[in-house]
Amino acid sequence: MKKLPTLFVWGLPILSGLLFVALWYGIRAVSGLQSWILPTPLDILRAAFSERATLVAAAGQTAIGALGGFVLAAALGFATSLLLGVSRSLRAGLYPWLLVLQMTPVIVLTPIIMLWAGPGMPGIITITWLISYFPIVANMTQGLLSTDMNHVALFRMCNASRMQEMLLLRVPSAMPLYLAGLRIAATLAPIGAIFGEYMVGNSSGKSGGLGFLVYSYNTQIKIPALFATALTSCLLGFIFVAAVSWLNWAVLHKWHDSFERNDH
Amino acid sequence: MEAVAPIVNFTSLQKRYGDGPLVLDGINLQVQRGDFITFIGPSGCGKSTVLKLVSGLSPWTVGELSVAGVKPRQARDRQAFIFQDATLLPWLTAQHNVELPLRLRGVPAAERVAKARQMLELVGLGAASGYYPRQLSGGMKMRVSIARALTLAPQLLLLDEPFGALDEMTRNRLNEELLALRAKAPFTAMFVTHSVAEAVFLSNRIVVMAANPGRLHAEVAVDFPYPRAPELRERPEFQAKVNEVSHLLHQVEPVPA
């Protein structure tokens, strides 16, 4: 496939974005909707500017919850996968229950989490962890089980112990899939944190995070500010994904085929 | 009599996978120390399986097999396996790949670094020690693989079509290098290939195998003395040997359906 020229790669999304904004203004003009139902992009930017202190503080709060849940999911996901990877019986015994956990909608569990972990940060981190945990386990376990059979034979020929086989062979070869799991989790963690704040966040501190802002702006019918909150959440999500993409690059670019340069 | 005991001894050996058909049947073969023995035959004749049995990676069904007088698994520290593809770990540099068998055996870092460097020099890749496998050509990868296999100074080297994916020039060069390495650090070799010329150039014994079930069809002795120069390939007696083996291969070729 021919690569698009750089100008197009940058220019096309900007062009489609401008078209979208034009369409937005068009719909406003034709429908005659009021600003509190459909604010213009300019209204939203104005609201974002006037609420900037609240939004930034809330985003910071949300970032802490999202990062806490993400790190917990990354660590527990890694450990769980190791358990599932070492033994077929553990896999058979535990995997169905992981699926049960994943299949249960978090919203159903929220009151229970609130009851057990408590409102505020502990509950938010628990919800974020619950949402981002499974994709990490599913990917990493798959990675641990798809080790090249010739590599395994090589280790067996060298009389490698099970421990050596796991740490020096299976874990490194599962890294690309672990990181793929982390990338999915990075898109889910801010969503989980905001949902958690919406459900169990308390406003006792200076800020209840973006999720609490949604609740608060909604009750005040500050619709442009609600859109500005959406914009801020989106930016936070991008920062998370960018950070994990960087981690992915740092771990893999030297040896993995996905970073092969086609310059020869 | 201990001195003349074969390093690998097959006695009336049979192999099948599960309840499947016989993969190998009636294998009786003694590999002597210092042999370079090559297995050649049509697809499905079980020649790669022979190596898997010797390495202890796969169990046999009936009969006896001993390596250096013990069971194959117990003789693993005396053998090394070179696979069809180089089987390098992509996340390790050439240097670290060569160090791997030493690391798995708990050899101290300083010692294994020095040993791996020496092995890479030996296969002509001293300058490429910091490269990752994806930066190496097919021939270079195979050299790293050979260096890795030889770090533990094995008595027995098992090679499963190691040069099958390489172009002919690279293959010929690596054949010559393999014999040169064997002159420096003597090992017994069991080699599997599809190439008759490669078999004749490398081996002192060639075993032609037949399929369904896999069995030994004929054995050809190759008496050209070592060291063997590249020019050997152009001599008429070399060509005669190639023809002799090719003729035996035609006898076991499956009838086209």
Provide an overview of this structure.
The complex is a heterodimer of chains A (264) and B (257). With 264 residues, chain A is mostly helical. Chain A is built from 10 helices and no strands. Chain A is globular. In chain A, 34% of the residues are buried. Chain B has 7 helices and 9 strands, in the order E-E-E-H-E-E-H-H-H-E-H-E-H-E-E-H. The relative contact order of chain B is 0.18. Chain B is globular, with a radius of gyration of 18 Å. Chain B has one domain: P-loop containing nucleotide triphosphate hydrolases (Rossmann fold, 3-Layer(aba) Sandwich), CATH 3.40.50. The A-B interface holds A 148, 150-151, 153-160, 164, 168-169, 172-173, 175, 254-257, 260 and B 55, 57, 76-77, 79-81, 83, 85, 87, 89-92, 100-101, 103-105, 132-134.
Summarize the topology:
The complex is a heterodimer of chains A (264) and B (257).
Chain A: H1 6-31, H2 41-50, H3 52-86, H4 88-103, H5 106-117, H6 121-145, H7 149-157, H8 162-200, H9 209-219, H10 223-252
Helix pairs in contact in A: 2-10, 3-4, 3-6, 3-8, 3-9, 3-10, 5-6, 6-8, 8-9, 8-10, 9-10
Chain B: E1 8-16, E2 22-31, E3 36-40, H1 47-55, E4 62-67, E5 79-82, H2 94-104, H3 109-122, H4 138-150, E6 156-160, H5 168-184, E7 188-192, H6 196-202, E8 205-210, E9 215-221, H7 236-252
Parallel strand pairs in B: 3-7, 3-8, 5-6, 6-7
Antiparallel strand pairs in B: 1-2, 1-4, 8-9
Write a short abstract of this structure.
Chain A has helices at 6-31, 41-50, 52-86, 88-103, 106-117, 121-145, 149-157, 162-200, 209-219, 223-252. By secondary structure, chain A is mainly α.
What descriptors fit this protein?
heterodimer, A: 264 residues, mainly alpha, MetI-like fold, 81% helix, 0% strand, globular, B: 257 residues, alpha/beta, Rossmann fold, 3-stranded antiparallel beta sheet, 7 helices, 9 strands, 34% helix, 22% strand
Q: Number of helix segments of chain B?
A: 7
The CATH class of chain B is Alpha Beta
What's the name of the CATH homologous superfamily of chain A? MetI-like
**Beta-strand residue fraction of chain B:** 15-25%
Might you state the CATH topology name of chain A?
MetI-like fold
Give the overall pLDDT of chain B as a whole number: 94
- In whole angstroms, the N-to-C terminal distance of chain B is 50 Å
| SSE order of chain A, one letter for each helix or strand | HHHHHHHHHH
- Total E-strand runs of chain A: 0
Estimated structural class of chain A: mainly alpha
Which segments of chain A are poorly predicted (pLDDT under 50) over 5 or more consecutive residues? none
CATH level 1 name of chain A: Mainly Alpha
- In CATH, the architecture of chain A is Orthogonal Bundle
Q: Major sheet of chain B: order of its strands?
A: 5-6-7-3-8-9
